[in-house]
Amino acid sequence: MCNLPWLNLCFLSSREYDLVDIILPSSLRVNETMNIVLETVQTHVTWPWPETAGQTEDQALQYKTNLLVLSPYYTLVQRTKLK
Questions:
Q1: Taking all residues of the chain, what is their mean pLDDT, rounded to a whole number?
Q2: What proportion of the chain, given as a percentage, has pLDDT over 90?
């Protein structure tokens, strides 16, 4: 795996998206494919569920976000992994 150069084209706190341009080292040939892994860190997308719990009750963490990558290219698989 190599790190590709990228440009952060646009980020406005009033919007809910970030525009990124990934720069490939060379053009892909016809029908050639490439896997690109995009790692993000997200904040303010989790909260305790249920909001309150007794000392002996279980409490989980709820996660909600509109995490997806929009691409002008055909995308076979898009996965989200939580760590």
A1: 77
A2: 1
Structural domain harbouring 77: 33-83
pLDDT digits (tens, 9 = 90+) for 48-82: 888 888 899 998 988 887 777 777 777 888 777 77
* Residue 28 belongs to a domain: no
pTM: 0.50
Instruction: Kindly state whether residue 18 falls inside one of the protein's structural domains.
Output: no
Q: Are 34 and 26 in contact (CB under 8 A)?
A: no
Task: Give a three-class secondary structure readout of the chain.
Answer: CCCCCEEEEEECCCCCCEEEEECCCCCCCCCCCCCCCCCCCCCCCEEEECCCCCCCCCCEEEECCCCCCCCCCCCCCCCCCCC
The number of domains in the chain is 1
Residue 76 placed within a domain: yes
